[in-house]
Amino acid sequence: MSSRTLPLLFINLGGEMLYILDQRLRAQNIPADKAKKVMNDIITTMFNKKFLEELFKPQELYSKKALRTVFDRLAHASIMRLNQASMDKLYDLMTMAFKYQVLLCPRPKDILLVSFNHMDAIKEFVKDTPSILSQVDETYRQLLEMYTPLSNGEFQLIRQTLLIFFQDMHIRVSIFLKDKVQNSNGRFVLPTTGPVPHGTQVPGLIRMFSCTGEEVTRLQFINGGNYTTAFREGSFEIFGDRVTKLGTNMYSVSRPVETHMSGTSKNSAQHTKVNSAPNPLAKEELNLLAKLMGGLEFQKPGNSDSGFRVNLFATDEEEEEALITRPDELSYGVLNIQATKVNLSQLTLQCTKGFDFFSFSRHPNNNTSSKGDDLLAMMDGL
Q1: Where is the composition biased (Polar residues) (predicted)?
Q2: What is residue 353's predicted lDDT score, i.e. its pLDDT?
Q3: 24-54 pLDDT tens trace
């Protein structure tokens, strides 16, 4: 498993989250000043210096539950609130969109170009706020420093790690279904047309060489697709044309987006139950989570009346129905974890003594909960 996958996973999922929230804020006619505050607050939190320091440390990829906790916290980093059904849908859309992008990358290295497309969009969201823009530029620098020296083999390992992370997720998304790039069982349809990866040739020719390196025979074969010569390579600099459209905003043309559990959800639920046994990495996951959460700094809204709720469904009734019908195995309870301003060496010691450091209290999700909650973490049975 690649130890350098987490930053790319976080940045790309974060970019998709911002695309979706921007679309929903517009669709619900949220006032421009409030919408801008939501985007600025979330991006400020995403690119917090201490948080990124922990994120960029080489480390193995941890569970979906721990990552979901981070994004639930991020989504509630401003005056906007989502109830559990909308948060579930938001996370489904984020993960399936990025899974599709990873599958479509012509080369493993192109995952970095997808990340830069997300970063370019994030810069556009905060282009009028220099202080936040400088945070994003610093992350660009860290990405370049960490990933541009990697070999093709290392990028292939990152891609495999991402696909392993997503392999059991088969949520159907209306945009993908309408565009016929996803089947009714939630699995994606990979194309056999289009440009081949940069640096390769269109398949269809076999050349054989003698021991002296002289070409002696050529054989033609039908490649089974309609491939074209590769486009020019995208820019791996802070500024430049990425060439690929993967990682750009697919919601720029407004159209409704729905998610549905696939026909294999029953099997997925059974799989989740099997995996719900005590995890030998639980202490490490909680330790990672506390480090990440400890790096997040939030400002409590001064006026609780200024908050508002965003619904990712067409109506409140649809949102309530989704909350009722969603399988229990795929929903998350809410845990409060006090994990800020903590000595990490003490944390590790406490974790090994049975997690006495953490204070867990399970309670139902509440739309009117305090906006100053330390952590709205949708985890289930760590």
Answers
A1: 261-277
A2: 40
A3: 998 888 899 999 999 999 999 999 988 898 8
Residue 156 lies in a domain: yes
Pairing, β 215-220 against β 205-209? antiparallel
Using CA atoms, how far residue 80 sits from 12, 33, 356, in Å, is 21, 13, 32
Per residue in 8-29, pLDDT tens? 999 999 999 999 999 999 888 8
List 260's β-bridge partners, or say none.
172
Q: Please work out, in degrees rounded to the nearest 5, the angle formed at the alpha carbon of residue 138 by the alpha carbons of 57 and 15.
A: 80
Q: What are phi and psi of 380, to 5 degrees?
A: -135, 100
On whether residue 325 sits in a domain, the answer given is no
**Positions of the chain with pLDDT lower than 70, given as ranges:** 1-2, 253-306, 311, 314, 316-317, 319, 322-323, 325-382
Structure tokens at 71: 């994004």
Distances (CA, A) of 97 to 151, 179, 203, 358: 26, 13, 28, 33
- Would the CA dihedral through 41, 45, 48, 50 be positive or negative? positive
Non-local (6+) Cβ contacts of 86 within 8 A are 310, 311, 312, 313, 319
- Report the distance separating Cα 337 and Cα 372, nearest Å: 13
* AA identity, residue 175: I
Backbone angles phi, psi at 80, to 5 degrees: -80, 145
* Residues 217, 208 contacting (CB under 8 angstroms): yes
In a domain, 231, yes or no: no
* Domain enclosing residue 24, as ranges: 5-192
Q: Which residue's entry shows tokens 């089947």?
A: 183
Query: How many domains is the chain partitioned into structurally?
Result: 1
Structure tokens at 82: 């989502």
pTM above 0.85, yes or no: no
Domain assignment present for 307:
no
**How does pLDDT run across 73-89, given as a tens digit for each residue?**
898 888 888 888 889 99
Cβ(102)–Cβ(166) under 8 Å? Answer: yes
Q: Give, in order, the Cα–Cα distances in Å from 250 to each of 36, 247, 307, 308, 379.
A: 20, 8, 28, 25, 29
- Total count of residues recorded for the chain: 382
How many CA atoms, within 13 angstroms, populate the side-chain half-sphere of residue 382?
Answer: 34
Beta bridge partners of 215: 209
What are the structure tokens assigned to 200, written together? 């390769």
- Which position has the token pair 């229990």? 328
